[in-house]
Design goal:
Layout: H1 2-18, E1 32-35, H2 38-48, E2 53-56, H3 71-79, E3 82-85, H4 91-100, E4 104-107, H5 133-150, H6 155-179, E5 187-190, E6 204-207, H7 219-231, E7 236-239, H8 246-255, E8 258-261, H9 277-291
Parallel strand pairs: 1-2, 1-3, 3-4, 5-6, 5-7, 7-8
C-alpha cells in the first residue's frame, strides 16, 4: 500500500514539476515572454508578432508600482524564455529575477539612459522613460536581440517587426516635436510626476504629487502651485486614468480651471482597453496642444 500511495503522489506531482524548468516555452513550442508592465508588453508583442506568447505581469487597471506577484506569476518569470522589465520600478519583479530569473533578461535601465527625477524627489531616476519614443525604441532593440537569440528560426521576422515599430516611434517623436513647437503656455500641471520625459519637446511639467501617485502634497507645495498657475495663465489641470483624480480635481475647483486626462501609459484600463501605446500617446499630444494653446 505504501508503494501504491508513493506512485500516486509522484503521478500527481509530475505535471507540476515539469512546469518548473526554465525556458521551455508554451506547449506549441513558441518562445514565452513575460513583460512586467504595459509599455514593455506592447513592445514585446510588436516585435514578436505571432511567434511568441507574451504575458503582462501587471493586470489592466492596476498601478505597476503596486505589483505583487502571485505564485503562478513567479513561476512564469522563472520559466520564461525572455523576461522584459525595468529594475527599480517593481520590487517584486526585481526580486524574482535576481533570485531565479531566466537566462535571457532585458532590463530597460541597462539600455536606456534614465533622467533624474525632480529635486523634490531626491534626484533619483525617473522610471517613465517610455514616454520618450526614442528611448522606447532603444529598449525594443535590446528585446529583439534577446528574442532572436532564443528563437533564431524567426530572427528575420523579429528584425522586420522591430524596424516597423521603430518607424512608428520615429514618426511619433516627430509629431510631438512639431505639435508642441509653438505653444502659448509652456507649463503643464499634472497629477503626479510622470511626464518629465516629455520636457524634451519644450514644455515644463509641474506635479501635484511626486513620483508616487499616492503621495500627499504639502500645503506649501499646493500654495506654490496656485502661484504658478496664476503666473503662467494655466487653464487646465491634468488627472490620469489609473491614479486618483481627487487632488487634481480639488486644485482645479479652487482656481476655476478645467480638468483633462493625460495618460502616463503605465497600463490600460477599462476606458482604454481598445487603445494601444501609439493611440494613447497621440491622445496625450492632442490634450497637451489644447491645454497649451499650441498653433
Amino acid at each position: 500500500m505504501k508503494l501504491v500511495r508513493l506512485l500516486a503522489a509522484v503521478a500527481v506531482a509530475a505535471p507540476l514539476l515539469a512546469g518548473c524548468g526554465a525556458g521551455t516555452g508554451d506547449e506549441s513550442g513558441s518562445p514565452s515572454v513575460v513583460a512586467s508592465f504595459y509599455p514593455l508588453q506592447y513592445v514585446a508583442e510588436r516585435v514578436a508578432g505571432g511567434h511568441a506568447e507574451v504575458q503582462n505581469l501587471t493586470s489592466p487597471g492596476r498601478e505597476p508600482h503596486d505589483l505583487e506577484l502571485t505564485v503562478q506569476q513567479t513561476a512564469a518569470v522563472s520559466d520564461a524564455d525572455v523576461a522584459f522589465y525595468e529594475s527599480g520600478l517593481q520590487p517584486a519583479v526585481d526580486q524574482v529575477i535576481d533570485e531565479n530569473g531566466p537566462e535571457h533578461v532585458v532590463d530597460a535601465t541597462e539600455v536606456v539612459d534614465l533622467e533624474p527625477a525632480s529635486a523634490e524627489e531626491g534626484g533619483g531616476p525617473d522610471p517613465h522613460f517610455w514616454l520618450d519614443p526614442v528611448r522606447l525604441g532603444k529598449a525594443a532593440a535590446a528585446f529583439e536581440k534577446q528574442l532572436a537569440e532564443v528563437d533564431p528560426d524567426h530572427a528575420a521576422d523579429y528584425a522586420t517587426n522591430l524596424r516597423a515599430l521603430q518607424d512608428d516611434l520615429t514618426d511619433l517623436d516627430r509629431d510631438f516635436a512639431a505639435g508642441l513647437a509653438d505653444c502659448a503656455i509652456d507649463t503643464v500641471v499634472v497629477s503626479h510626476d510622470a511626464f518629465g520625459y516629455l520636457s524634451k519637446y519644450g514644455l515644463d511639467f509641474e506635479a501635484v504629487n511626486g513620483l508616487s501617485p499616492d503621495a500627499e502634497p504639502s500645503f506649501a507645495h499646493i500654495a506654490a502651485l496656485h502661484d504658478l498657475i496664476e503666473a503662467h495663465h494655466i487653464t487646465t489641470v491634468f488627472a490620469e486614468t489609473l491614479g486618483s483624480k481627487q487632488m487634481a480635481d480639488a486644485l482645479a475647483d479652487d482656481l476655476g480651471l478645467e480638468t483633462a486626462v493625460l495618460d502616463p501609459i503605465e497600463g490600460l484600463s477599462d476606458a482604454t482597453a481598445g487603445e494601444d501605446y501609439l493611440s494613447l500617446m497621440r491622445a496625450d499630444l492632442a490634450a497637451l496642444r489644447k491645454a497649451s494653446q499650441c498653433r
